Amino acid sequence: MEFHPVVEQFRAQAEILDATQSTKSIDEATIQLAIWMDLNADRLSVDDMALLTAVGGILFREGLNRRFQKQFGDPER
C-alpha cells in the first residue's frame, strides 16, 4: 500500500524512534507542536492555525485517553 510522501516520512520517523528506543510520548509531541505553533504564529495563516489546532486536539485527546486507560483500564472490559 502506498501512502502520501509525508505520511511515509512519519512512518520512517516512527521507525527511527523504535530503533533508538525513544521514550518520547504523545504528550511530548503535543507540547512540541504547541511550542512550535506559538513560536511561528506570526507566519501561520488562520487556516494553518485551525488545521494545526485540530491536529493538536487529536493528539491531546489520544494522550488523555491513553493516560485514562493506563490508570483505570479499558472501560470496554
Automatic annotation (TrEMBL):
Domain of life, source organism: Bacteria
Name by which UniProt lists this protein: Uncharacterized protein
